[in-house]
């Protein structure tokens, strides 16, 4: 079975439509747009700056090609092809397609850089970074519209990279920042080209990139991952770049079957998921570091941590790859959580403006110049249709819940339409219409969210039966036109607690271990269904609040109030000891997603009367 087409409606569909009409149609309109003009020789041949602005071209090509092909937007398709053709016209004979002056290009050895979180103060080089996105963009244009010239241009870039790194011996980590992570992302498009063309030198290029990344002691990508290093301890711990490197490693595992790659990916994914993901599903960090974009140490939790929208893109892509490898429901769960919260929460309703950084507790700021995250957000949204439904030889998996439909092609050439009718994520009642051309047997796997304890499922006219949360409900049968799958997902409010706790460990003079808690801050937050909830400024002016609540979650009084006015979501009214109740609404849409508005997800929990915590250690 193959997925032929997907249309998402409801909340995700609105975001995709806004993205296509906004960022993808307005930021780049043709070869004369500033983000494309920087590749013209008149600019390129004098560009000593060496920064990352060239990435926008490749990101836009990826996202805009997908959007145009998905929607049938002929005007957008024409822009995509015109831009791709213009880039081909300025590509050098050796395959170079960057925006750097000749002396700064990745083919030229550069002097060693001083240690830095961000690449300063040495001249920075993002040349391979830009080419990596251009490779992905040109390949996506080829996939969507079938023109061989765009694939040929991508191959010429990869051939140049193969010559420089595999034959000439330049170390790829020497031409990138963050101890080489900004260049070793080439791993991703190199494997893409190998998968598409079957050309072995592109696989050799990918393996060469990984070997050089592993040989750099400050990066040691595979070694550290296999050793169970926390993501914050690999290179500079920059979330975006590390996750993108892991995307490439996942693709390389799919191409080679190497078990070490799979084990490294599993360890890193689990560490990121357990210690470095916000309640809304985005990689967060930046507390106590010079860089805002690196993972915190594993024990650090702060509601004011940064979620970079670029990191959301790479996290989605990593889960996309791992879902394809493992078919593990956890990866679909993470994609949906991220999509409905931190991703939508970073996009403005106009589809053009985006937050560079988002905060669980903090002010919403729309970036208003050439920052990376506006293009990354647009690209991340276009990942969603392809992962909403995935197919295998036995049938289809419904990974993302929400209104929409998919057209599936059976092995016999007949089509099946799956159509979801639901107000999800605001309501847990979902009906999936199964519409084959004629009665036929196949499997449908429906994801039951991990929070949906007590979920019930009914097939056709059958009685509802309980299904396990956090798993796929497997239904293999002969489906007739008009059959349905009815899913009922309870959506009670849920309480989430997080603690920032620091334990000092030492030894007494006699050698006995000594442990003492020196820091302890507890926080509480609330969700309903897949949605994280937040409030605005508390009492109209406070950017934080400390509250007293019962120790047991089931003793906390949370009312679920029905939607009012134009608001589609229920309100959660939380009652506290010693202060008035506070109303919470979904984080993604709070205050109409207005620039400069405040969102407060986590409330501080008051310490006990003695100051000691239940899990304290080393008390005097």
Automatic annotation (TrEMBL):
UniProt xrefs under InterPro entries: 6-hairpin_glycosidase_sf (IPR008928), Beta-AFase-like (IPR049174), Beta-AFase-like_GH127_cat (IPR012878), Beta-AFase-like_GH127_middle (IPR049046)
GO biological process entries: carbohydrate metabolic process
Organism: Luteimonas aestuarii
Domain Non-reducing end beta-L-arabinofuranosidase-like GH127 catalytic: residue ranges: 47-382
Residues of the Non-reducing end beta-L-arabinofuranosidase-like GH127 middle domain: 396-491
SUPFAM superfamilies in the cross-refs: Six-hairpin glycosidases (SSF48208)
Name assigned to this protein: Glycoside hydrolase family 127 protein
């Amino acid at each position: 079975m193959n997925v032929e087409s997907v249309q998402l409606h409801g909340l995700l569909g609105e975001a995709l439509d806004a993205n296509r009409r906004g960022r993808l149609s307005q930021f780049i309109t043709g070869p004369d747009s500033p983000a494309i003009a920087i590749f013209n020789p008149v600019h390129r041949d004098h560009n000593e700056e060496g920064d990352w602005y060239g990435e926008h071209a490749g990101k836009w090509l990826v996202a805009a090609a997908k959007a145009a092909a998905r929607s049938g937007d002929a005007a957008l398709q024409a822009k995509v092809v015109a831009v791709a053709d213009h880039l081909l016209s300025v590509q050098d004979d050796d395959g170079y397609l960057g925006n750097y002056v000749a002396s700064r290009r990745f083919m030229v050895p550069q002097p060693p850089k001083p240690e830095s979180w961000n690449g300063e103060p040495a001249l920075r080089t993002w040349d391979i970074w830009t080419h990596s996105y251009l490779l992905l963009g040109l390949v996506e244009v080829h996939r969507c519209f079938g023109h061989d010239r765009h694939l040929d241009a991508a191959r010429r870039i990869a051939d140049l990279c193969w010559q420089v790194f595999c034959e000439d011996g330049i170390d790829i980590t020497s031409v990138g920042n963050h101890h080489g992570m900004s260049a070793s992302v080439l791993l991703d498009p190199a494997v893409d080209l190998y998968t598409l063309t079957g050309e072995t030198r592109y696989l050799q290029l990918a393996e060469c990139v990984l070997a050089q990344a592993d040989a750099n002691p400050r990066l040691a990508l595979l070694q550290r991952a296999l050793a169970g290093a926390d993501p914050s301890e690999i290179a500079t711990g920059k979330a975006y770049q590390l996750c993108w490197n892991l995307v490439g490693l996942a693709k390389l595992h799919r191409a080679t079957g190497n078990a070490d790659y799979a084990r490294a990916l599993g360890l890193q994914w689990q560490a990121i998921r357990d210690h470095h993901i916000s309640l809304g599903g985005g990689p967060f960090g930046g507390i106590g570091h010079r860089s805002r974009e690196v993972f915190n140490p594993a024990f650090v939790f702060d509601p004011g941590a940064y979620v970079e929208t670029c990191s959301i893109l790479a996290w989605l892509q990593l889960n996309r790859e791992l879902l394809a490898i493992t078919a593990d429901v956890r990866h679909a769960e993470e994609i949906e959580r991220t999509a409905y919260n931190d991703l939508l929460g970073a996009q403005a309703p106009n589809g053009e403006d985006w937050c560079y950084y988002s905060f669980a507790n903090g002010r919403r700021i729309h970036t208003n110049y050439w920052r990376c995250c506006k293009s990354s957000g647009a690209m991340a949204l276009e990942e969603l249709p392809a992962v909403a439904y995935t197919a295998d030889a036995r049938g289809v998996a419904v990974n993302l819940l929400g209104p929409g439909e998919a057209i599936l092609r059976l092995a016999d050439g007949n089509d099946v339409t799956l159509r979801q009718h639901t107000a999800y994520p605001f309501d847990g009642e979902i009906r999936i219409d199964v519409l084959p051309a004629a009665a036929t047997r196949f499997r449908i796997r429906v994801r039951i969210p991990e929070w949906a304890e007590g979920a019930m499922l009914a097939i056709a006219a059958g009685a509802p039966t309980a299904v396990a949360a956090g798993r796929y409900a497997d239904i293999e049968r002969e489906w007739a036109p008009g059959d349905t799958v009815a899913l009922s997902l309870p959506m009670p409010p849920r309480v989430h607690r997080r603690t920032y706790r620091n334990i000092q460990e030492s030894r007494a003079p006699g050698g006995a271990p000594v442990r003492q808690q020196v820091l302890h801050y507890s926080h509480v937050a609330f969700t309903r269904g897949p949605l994280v909830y937040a409030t605005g400024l508390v009492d109209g002016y406070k950017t934080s609040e400390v509250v007293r609540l019962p120790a047991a979650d089931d003793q906390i009084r949370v009312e679920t109030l029905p939607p009012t006015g134009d608001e589609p979501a229920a309100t959660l009214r939380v009652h506290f000891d010693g202060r008035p109740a506070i109303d919470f609404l979904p984080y993604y849409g709070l205050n109409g997603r207005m620039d400069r508005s405040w969102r407060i997800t986590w409330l501080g929990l008051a310490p006990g009367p003695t100051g000691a915590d239940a899990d304290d250690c080393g008390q005097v």
